[in-house]
Amino acid sequence: MNLRVLFTFFIAVLMLPLYGQIASVGLIGDATPGGWDDDTDMVRDEENPDLWTLDINLNNGVVKFRADDGWTINWGSTDFPIGVGTQDGPDIPVRAGQHHITFNSATGEYYFSVASDIGIIGSASPFGWDADVNLYQDDSDPDLYSISLPLGSGEAKFRQDDDWAVNWGSTDFPSGIGVQDGPNIPVAIGGDYEITFNKATGEYSFVLTSYSTVGIIGDATPNGDTPTPMTSGSAPGSWTISVDLTEGGVQFSGDDGLAIWGGIDFPSGTAVLDGDPIQVPAGLYVVEFNTRTLAYEFKEVVFYNTIGIIGDATAGGWEEDTDMQPDPSGDPHQWTLRTTLATGEAKFRANDDWDVNWGAGTFPSGTATINGANIPVTEGEYIISFNSFTGQYFFFELRIYNSVGLVGTGSPSGSWDIDTELVRDETNENLWGLPEVEMLDGEAKFRAEGNWTVNWGTDSWPSGTGTQDGPNIPITGGTYSVSINTETGEYAFADPVSSTQDLLNPSLITVFPNPTVETLNINLDAIDMTGNVRVQVLDISGRVMMSNVLPAEKLLQVQLPSLPTGVYMLHLSNERYIIGKKFTVSK
Question: CA-to-CA distance for 199 and 180, rounded, in angstroms?
């Protein structure tokens, strides 16, 4: 069996127009009744096969659209209730309520229409004067309604039950009191708005939440009253800047003074429109501000000569630090260490001194805070990562085995009781293989130490990612080279001339930052990975969380905004390589 031929075919199939083969579209996510485990199927339109609808009660949370109950084709976006989903886009944030959902699988366009008696209509609204966009009724006040919505410059009115019998308008903007059959409300500036309306009093407000530019001003900033520009982030309304500040005041400025926000709390708080300058001490900061939530935070940037781990779980106890190593990617805040720990407690600290130390009560991952609680540790060998700026840490346990074998009716022994032992790679303790082995028609699994406590399997041939207690691997009889990476579970049966080095060696690529928040960089500079590369992200159970085909480049970048904190596996494959790399997400 030729692995190169198999992967050439695999890539060719992936490049077909998959969207034309869609049999079903479903909604999935923690806001749906089925959570992330089961799709709620949508109904296909009889006249337009690309149009799908669904009536469903949603909770507060996130969702995605996906095809055929799998992640190969899925759509997401940060926009709600109206937007355009893209392949492998972020989770869609949704509000609770009974919704009528429309989705176009050809264009990705979607609309979540909530059941409500109050809507907004007009030339400034997404559907013009043709249809209302319904507002969400407040849980505690039945007269109060709200929605986050993109508007164009134009006019708008509020009305009841999608009809002109009861409607409200006024000449005032961005706030005012609407009256029955009043004039159209002039929306002066297009953008994203948080809209509120009270049907008992007619009071309304339009708060602009999106800006083309946001900056910081004030006597503590480099440019004084001239905005020092911030950079737009990936989350809706988020902006950030790394900046040296002197002691003094800081305000946020939207669109060169169209809106000015200030606050009274430091280092974090909620800004108010036209608020006083936030008083800050001098220092280097990463400043974050969100024009939608108005939350802000000033994070001081401090560089340390050394970072160590200390505690009765470490070799030095509470008396001596075990120094960590600076991250090889060059991030001055990222530190790593491979070490054996005992059951006990530990903390991180800077410069071998208690003046600056971090801790938290969670294990194996968490966000440590200055002078936080001791971290409870379980005995084992770990690779530890720690970020001295964010406080994020992760203890990844290493599992090193004395033996790994093949067993099953498809294995050389033809038995589920007799293992065919593999040979450990000389340079990588997690790589095992044999250059030539005779497999039988049947099924097989990999297992460690000659028993079933640790085993790997899945229903994929000739390569795949085995998981603990996964299904048996279907085997086609023949002569192969066989390889498995016990850290990631990836395995391959290939031509006897193929080598473990070519197929599975994770040291051939580097990923950074690791841990990451939402962006993972993949450095392919050390290998000749050409053509198209299949990029998948799997959780620890083997579930595919993201899948895409990208043209091979020396540096690939994968966006992971929807992944919660945890351990994941990056799986890369093309005609020659099948390489896996574990990484962590810490938010």
Answer: 11
Sign of CA dihedral 14, 19, 22, 27: positive
In our burial notation (b when 16+ CB lie closer than 10 A, e otherwise), range 291-306 reads bbebbbbbbeeeeeee
What fold, for 3-114?
Answer: Immunoglobulin-like (2.60.40)
The top-level CATH class assigned to 404-503 is: mainly beta
Candidates 448, 458, 584, 455; CA nearest to 517 is 584
Residue 30 to residues 40, 461, 564: CA-CA distances in angstroms?
12, 32, 12
- Provide the pLDDT for residue 503: 58
For 509-585, CATH gives 2.60.40.3080
Structure tokens at 17: 């127009």
Cα separation of 3 and 519, whole Å? 31
**Chain CA centroid to CA 154, Å:** 36
The angle formed by the CA atoms of residues 367, 30 and 583, to the nearest 5 degrees, is 40
State the architecture of 118-208 in CATH terms. Answer: Sandwich (2.60)
C-alpha distances in angstroms, 158 versus 134, 150, 193?
A: 10, 16, 15
129-150 residue pLDDT tens: 999 999 999 999 999 999 999 9
Q: Which residue has the higher pLDDT, 274 or 542?
A: 274
Instruction: Tell me the one-letter amino acid at 38.
Output: D
Of 383, 369, 378, whose CA–CA distance to 328 is shortest? Answer: 383
The token pair at 10 is 């695999």
Indicate the DSSP class of residue 516: B
Residue 13 to residues 10, 532, 546: CA-CA distances in angstroms? 5, 12, 18
Beta-bridged to residue 457, according to DSSP, are 467
Q: Which helix (H) or strand (E) holds 443?
A: strand 442-448
Give pTM, 2 decimals: 0.61
pLDDT, residue 329, reads 66
Residue 17's contacts (CB-CB under 8 Å, 6 or more residues apart) are none
Backbone angles phi, psi at 264, to 5 degrees: -115, -10
Read off the pLDDT of residues 291-308 as tens digits, 9 standing for 90 and up. Answer: 888 899 999 999 999 999
| Fold of the domain built from segment(s) 307-393 | Immunoglobulin-like (2.60.40)
Percent of residues, the chain, with pLDDT higher than 90: 63
